[in-house]
Amino acid sequence: MEKLCVINLSKSLSKNAVLQNINFTIEEGEFLTILGPSGCGKTTLLRILIGLDFPDTGQIFKDGTEITNEVPSNRGMGIVFQNYALFENMTVLENIEYALRRNKTLRNSSRSIAMEMVALVKLDEHINKKPSALSGGQQQRVAIARTLALGPDIILFDEPMAALDADTRMMLRTEIKRIQKELGATIIYITHDQEEAFAMSDRIMVMNDGKIIQLDTPENIVTHPANEYIQQFVIKNLEMKIDSLIKYVNTTPHN
Amino acid sequence: MHLNVYSQHINKTTKGYQKISRLLLVIGLTFSIIMPLIAMMINIFSVNIIKIVTSTKFLSALKNSLLLSAIATILSVSLAYILAWCISRTAICFKGLFTIILSIPMLIPSISHGIGLVILFGTNGVMTNMFNLPFTIYGIWGIIMGSVLYSFPIAFLMVLEIFHLEDSTPYEAATVMGLSRMEKFKIITIPYFKKPMITVLFAVFTMVITDYGVPLMVGGKCITLPVMMYQDVIGMLEFGKGSVIGIILLIPALIACLVDSRIRENGNKEFVKKEFRILPQKIRDFGAYTICTISSLLVLSPIIVFSVLSFVNKYPLDMSLTFKHLQHALKLNAGQYLINSLFIAFLVSILGVLLAITSAYFTVRMPSKISGVLHLLSIMSLSIPGIVLGLSYVIFFKGSYVYGTFAILILANIIHFFSSPYLLIYNTFGKINMNLESVGMTLGISRWHIIKDILLPLSKDTILEMFSYFFVNSMITISAVSFLASVSNKPISLLIPQFEGQMQLECAAIVSLLIFIINMILKGTVLLLKKKK
Ligand SMILES: Nc1ncnc2c1ncn2[C@@H]1O[C@H](COP(=O)(O)OP(=O)(O)O)[C@@H](O)[C@H]1O
Ligand SMILES: [Mg+2]
Questions:
Q1: Facing residues of A155 across strands?
Q2: CB–CB of A74 and B435 under 8 A?
Q3: Atom 21 of ligand 1: nearest residue by CA position
Q4: Nearest to residue B109, comparing CAs of B360, B476, B365, B393?
Q5: B277-313 tens-digit pLDDT
Q6: ipTM of the complex
Q7: Measured in angstroms, how far is the CA atom of residue A39 from the centroid of ligand 1?
Q8: Domains contained in chain B, CATH given
């Protein structure tokens, strides 16, 4: 079923056309990655999808209902930012519970939901710590749990791993995929890392200069690149990484 | 769909409120800063400017002011450098205690430093009598001494901050390269300190040249610009003449502001700095102990002098303890004036903190088209000397119903001391994650709850610091308020020049001591609250 549908979306900021005529749909339970260089409009698109910004033209439909002008908290979506944006004065549990306690329908079960979320992101041992006492990866888990607690059916990630080291990234990658499976959520995931996009996604949306260049499965993007840009930015880049990996494997003595 | 339209509507009305409060803030600040200044400036057209600025009295006041401010600034900043070095680059103990003692002069009015000097070195002063000194304090050197005393702690804290922010890596690299101490000083220390020290020099110069407390007490025949302005306005009600001097007194602060912004634009790089590792070194540390101890005693001397004078019968003839001076001061209504001061200081602190937080929230956390204007208005008072602000308030608000009430004193103090606390909270808010409000919106948490439950708790220490800044300064100020106070709303600090004029030095000492004690209590409380988690 069609979960989200974006039609003819455009947005200018300070007279710059940041997004031009964006059209796409996402299926329920899909993992869609938006891949593109810095400044191509990824964050702006995400902010419009969740309602932190409003488009100049175009419409957004969720489950068949228009939500273009809906306030963010009524859209049933959640967002996870690159820099976590945790409540530094609150403990892990309080971070996750805070929004629940401010929510009329979830207030009474706030503690049990929060504990469920803590278990889901495997932070049980750390519930009474402040964010500053956690590693970057753990902080990002708190942010994810806080977002999931309200039960959104679409979760947006804006380069959630950009500030993390390689090891943590690999681990969190698996975790996010596992959580998605457990919850059956639809995910839109921003990255500028080609490898990450190919490893995680059902489909990839390659963007440049505020436009969608190609939107397809990883296989199709590799086998049928839409143009020279995809060839250069996506495929060449991946090949280079693979080459250097192969070289590394061949030159490292095995003992 | 129904719900949809409704929530849009709410969103629009709250946005409307935010717009209105932002606009009100800009208008309010315009009316309490820009308009009074303009009113003062218009005043100069009613007088013959050329005649005023070419009069012998003016020219000699100008010369005195420039000369003594330059000397006092250099002395004060040099001392500040030496002591800040002792605290941050030697291995002495009690660094915290020394720092606190050396900042103590900030807790008493500048005029009290003048009184302290009069008591020690005046015509009938303690030291004058004891050692039969052939000179007295009155004149330019007295002003310089007093100005150094009261501007020193501010210079000291500023320079200490520069030392704390210095990176040790270049020195380590230089050591590896085998450079000598002198070479290190020349190629690392001087380039690093040059720009921030210029800021300190200008700040101290501005502070000294616009002060009238010290020259009023110990100036004798040496008239400075602020004293001349004070006499013209308070004594002879010559507002035009006062305004001319007022505008001239704006110039150093304006230059300081321009220089400062230029320096800041070029050199505000953020980098990871490495702390200095300091090993004990006998001779150096012994020297530092000596310097810190002597300076601490000097800095404490006015307080000691006040305590002795206040509670002995008749110094130095009859050294028996007594409360008669205190009783006398209370009979002269010091108690009532103290209550006035506390009332003013508390209201200034509470309202000032609220206003500064609101303003910083709009400039940092909710940027819009008028944020720039609001920020500029908020930091503007930094370059308006208290006496100039006071004069412009007299001219602008005279005849209005706030004139002569507590309200105008409170407003004048809030504006006078607004910039520093504003910048404190501006920086604190700026360091808090900028996505918080966005996160809040997506989680259904309103801006107000983000403020109440996250921003404010995270800024607790800054807010306490702001409160204490407003409070202490409201307690010690004599500049803006001296033009605005009447018998019914006079703050206690203004009793000091009054008592001195009536030759009641003991009472002046008691008042200084009272102000000091109250500020110490407040500072202590703030420190405790900060420690509490
Ligand atoms: N508030 C703004 N005003 C003007 N231009 C903006 C604003 N925010 C973003 N932009 C511009 O829009 C473009 C896209 O930004 P963004 O969506 O953040 O890109 P990405 O997330 O892909 O790096 C950039 O060129 C950026 O400079
Ligand atoms: Mg981005």
A1: A78, A187
A2: no
A3: A43
A4: B476
A5: 888 889 999 999 999 999 999 999 889 989 988 898 8
A6: 0.89
A7: 6
A8: 1-42+326-533 (1.10.3720.10), 47-311 (1.10.3720.10)
